[in-house]
């Protein structure tokens, strides 16, 4: 199963295309506002509004043999701990070997933003290279999950 944390996910179409080619079921999880896919392999899951409700839904279900697509680092940490493979939208794999450092960096950056409310910034724009890396990483993750 592929679980997609769909709110603000720039690679939903790519996940559906690759998942369909591999004949893998997909759950696209959001608080709403996502157009349901007619694809029989894609389940659109709309969870109630609330902080981290979609994340909890995914984390409660994802485990070994599953692939989770998310940019949410705390969700990624829970899914990695449950044995799922996790990919960020840019194709970066989050694993038991790197999730601790990624989580610590996220927390450090949050503390720095809180200490300096005028600090502007954010991530760099999503690029064609990111999309290409993601497609390659998803292909590898699905092959590994089928393993």
UniProtKB/TrEMBL annotation:
Q: Which organism is it from?
A: Loktanella fryxellensis
Q: What family does the database annotate? A: Belongs to the UPF0178 family.
Q: What is this protein called?
A: UPF0178 protein SAMN04488003_11386
Q: Which HAMAP family match?
A: UPF0178 (MF_00489)
Q: By its UniProt entry, which InterPro entries does this protein fall under?
A: UPF0178
